[in-house]
Amino acid sequence: MSLADSDFIIVGAGLYGSTIAERLANEYNLSVMILEQRNHLGGNCYSTIHQETGIEYHQYGTHIFHTSNETVWNYIHRFTHFNGYYHQVLTTYKDQVYQMPINLETINSFYGVNLKPFEVRQFLAREIAKENILRPQNLEEKAISLLGRPLYEAFIKGYTIKQWQKHPRDLPTSILTRIPFRTNYNENYFHDKWQGIPEDGYAAIFQKMLSHPKIQVHLNTDFFSIRDQLPQNTVIVYSGPIDRFFEYKFGKLEWRTLRFEKEVISVEDYQGISVMNYAEETVPYTRIHEPRHLHPERNYPQNETLIIREYSDMDDGSAPYYPINDEKNRKLLLKYHDEAKKHPNVFFSGRLGEYKYLDMHQTIENALDLFETRLCPLFRQ
Ligand SMILES: Cc1cc2nc3c(=O)[nH]c(=O)nc-3n(C[C@H](O)[C@H](O)[C@H](O)COP(=O)(O)OP(=O)(O)OC[C@H]3O[C@@H](n4cnc5c(N)ncnc54)[C@H](O)[C@@H]3O)c2cc1C
């Protein structure tokens, strides 16, 4: 199948591009060509087996599937079963472990008290009143106005400095619209109806999604290296970075990135949980992942385990992870949106095309929506 023979070109074999390709081929028997610059399917959801230990890990950070959207849950179930994993996060501060997000257990252990749920708000109100911040001007003030200084200093300040390489005083309030905290002992990280880890890993999902004979995937292929060969008006679903499509003509959208450092440790269980945050600024990494805990149903080695330290940094353009939701970038994005309107045959989509943090269930939801409302009408006369 050549470029000219394809009904659709899809840039990116991540969850967005793969959902669109799967729908077009399976619903309408259309020819789809996917161009993916990496050497694997799955985009940032990709999982692979660590050679030395045999433990499956998520190459771009731990991914837990969670949703309350029944359509999305039914859709993803066509390609995988989920194990019974449910996500819980702990954080280490000054050699003590606390539950995250902040809940009654966190507050009681931190203050050495035994509050009941109905006493928490009044207790925190006393801390908050000490600084009386009515109109928070930056992230530090916002956090203190919601939690009080002691909890802010322990759990927000150092972690935020490590994430952003900036003091919370120098970050806008818009970065943090709310601080999730619970007045009960609920330790379930997500509020969603369903969650889990794909039993056979994420990579297997993408193999199944893209198995239709009319879907052709070209790995190690940068869209921009073949862009000139495309017939005019080819319909393109573009899930790459929107600013790159326009050769950064207005400037680069900024991202934060992550760096991961693997280590094999000669114990069966290093930290007893899949993700442990480190709240203090003096610990250079933000979290440690221990992927064996994502698959409690598997037989993993008893004499060794894999841990992955996560470091946060500003992106140099090579590995965009988290968009920066500040005024400067929002204004820049609007300029690219205006440019995008001049290309009605190109659908800018996914986390890179929309410059938006999207969870996996939102990515699928958006892709199914684009398929139904924008792509189907193109050929459903
Ligand atoms: C650290 C981290 C942890 C996360 N954890 C969770 C979680 O626990 N649960 C959850 O629901 N979601 C999580 N997410 C979100 C999840 O990763 C996204 O929802 C999902 O990856 C979005 O899919 P996508 O297809 O839009 O983007 P991507 O996965 O980034 O796919 C885009 C693809 O396009 C390719 N591409 C880009 N430009 C070009 C080009 N020029 N030519 C060819 N190919 C190109 C890229 O190589 C990439 O493979 C997390 C995200 C991050 C950053």
UniProtKB/TrEMBL annotation:
Pfam families: GLF (PF03275), NAD_binding_8 (PF13450). One of its GO terms (molecular function) is UDP-galactopyranose mutase activity. One of its GO terms (cellular component) is cytosol. Gene3D superfamilies: NAD(P)-binding Rossmann-like Domain. Keywords: FAD, Flavoprotein, Isomerase. Residues 154-357 form the UDP-galactopyranose mutase C-terminal domain. The keyword Repeat does not apply. SUPFAM superfamilies: FAD-linked reductases, C-terminal domain (SSF54373), Nucleotide-binding domain (SSF51971). InterPro entries: UDP-GALP_mutase, UDP-GalPyranose_mutase_C. Coiled coil: none annotated. Its cofactor is FAD. It comes from the Bacteria. The keyword Isomerase applies. Belongs to the UDP-galactopyranose/dTDP-fucopyranose mutase family. PANTHER family: UDP-GALACTOPYRANOSE MUTASE (PTHR21197:SF0). This is UDP-galactopyranose mutase.
